[in-house]
Amino acid sequence: MTGKQAGGGQYAQRLVALRNYDLERAKEMARRTVGMGGLTAATPSIGST
Question: Hey, where are the domains in the chain?
Answer without folding.
Answer: 2-34
